[in-house]
Amino acid sequence: xxxxxxxxxxxxxxxxxxxxxxxxxxxxxxxxxxxxxxxxxxxxxxxxxxxxxxxxxxxxxxxxxxxxxxxxxxxxxxxxxxxxxxxxxxxxxxxxxxxxxxxxxxxxxxxxxxxxxxxxxxxxxxxxxxxxxxxxxxxxxxxxxxxxxxxxxxxxxxxxxxxxxxxxxxxxxxxxxxxxxxxxxxxxxxxxxxxxxxxxxxxxxxxxxxxxxxxxxxxxxxxxxxxxxxxxxxxxxxxxxxxxxxxxxxxxxxxxxxxxxxxxxxxxxxxxxxxxxxxxxxxxxxxxxxxxxxxxxxx
Length: 299
Known about the structure:
This protein is of the alpha/beta class. The chain has a single domain (19-298), classed as CATH 3.90.550.10. The chain has helices at 32-40, 83-93, 112-122, 152-155, 174-180, 191-199, 223-243, 247-269, 273-277, 285-298; strands at residues 19-25, 47-54, 72-77, 98-101, 107-108, 128-136, 142-146, 171-173, 205-216, 280-281. Strands 1, 2, 3, 4, 5, 6, 7, 8, 9 and 10 form a 10-stranded mixed beta sheet that branches.
């Protein structure tokens, strides 16, 4: 199953996890340790963490070399294959009934896994659940609250525009991930949106209405990269809606793409518009204090 370039910490088969957290990383830098520790500090304990080093060159894995937990499986590759490839690989390796996503520079609040498991166990129709998030910067400082859709109908109401359903916060049925999988070769930095577009009609999504995650945002914003992401996703939407003969949605996808490009230009002219148009609540002292408390307890 593994090639000669892998280093593996074997999983303890005597512990049966309910949740598999999958965290591929590439040049994770200074944030990997905080991300891993936030999983170790979870109030829910029936988990395994699959860490896949996707050919990193920054030796970030050394920052967690002193962390030992028999629930952690570490796999190191010397070839970079990309996020979608490694996600599919981790899904195939998962022992858990549920798979949870997380990026190597984000932070899970202590009750994240517990409340997502409760949501999935209480509603057997749910395939995938996310959580609410705060945003933080490169120095772990609070930025604001990210608002998102809650019910499946809200999440899927505008497929031509995209799904407000943040990828790093997902937890879902492992069988769902194995059924739909991530597209490979992967669309440019939008593998999550492509997967949701392909699966939303046959699936049920939901959101735990509680802030349980810290999502990292970097500045300055790379608008060239963002343009390529938007263009790539537009191509996938046009292909999908054309194949399904949803021509109105196809036209709306083009209109939304043009509107987003205009919005990006406005952001370049006046960066302060970003806060309002992106629906980021910058004035929440309570959430900021909560984040500081959680960060300190994890560190």
